[in-house]
Amino acid sequence: MSKLTETQTLILSRASQQADRIALPLPDRLRGGAANKVIVPLIKRGLLDEVEADIRKGEPTWRKTGDGHGTTLVITDAGLAAIGVETETPQPDPAPAKPKPRSSTKQAMLIEMLEAPDGATIAEITAATGWQPHTVRGAISGALKKRLGLTISSEKVEGRGRTYKIAS
After folding, report:
1. Residue 68: which region, alpha, beta or left (left: phi > 0; alpha: psi -120 to 50)?
2. Which CATH architecture has domain 6-82?
3. CA–CA distance from 112 to each of 7, 106, 109, 115, 129 (Å)?
4. What's the CATH architecture for 106-166?
5. What pLDDT digit, counting tens, does each position of 32-83 carry?
6. Which residue in 128, 92, 111, 87 sits closest to 164, CA to CA?
7. Beta strands of 22-149 (E only): which ranges?
8. H or E segment to which residue 79 belongs
9. pLDDT tens digit string along 84-106?
10. How far apart are CA 74 and CA 20, in angstroms?
């Protein structure tokens, strides 16, 4: 494993001293692209983890995801070990839990439409959500496939066009 920079060590050390293990706020001099260059490698190496934060409750956020929500950064057990802090109960880090969609949102509506036995077309989804077609495709590939880990299948149905549904 490559060495940590002085700034990365500082961020992990600050987080290790917090009861909730949150790694925010970042040092004042660390903003924008510079923050990404320091934080993204820590996330990729499993030393920090992005977890959901509620902006409306004033929780510190790393990035905003919309609808009053965002993500915050939390140090993992591997992050603690990287700076020489022992955890109380040494256990392997569990796989990060996949985020769950909130109910009563357009994303939840999209999932419900795709769970229907016949699935849904892009046109049907745009009519129901008010989104543009490119937004629907982005939500399917980004939010549903990548973020939530759902498997989406598509098939061309005669008289209806291409339909999308969540594979069971």
Report:
1. left
2. Orthogonal Bundle (1.10)
3. 44, 10, 5, 5, 12
4. Orthogonal Bundle (1.10)
5. 888 889 999 999 999 999 888 767 777 788 887 766 678 889 999 888 888 8
6. 111
7. 48-54, 63-66, 69-75, 120-121
8. helix 77-82
9. 887 665 555 555 665 666 677 88
10. 8
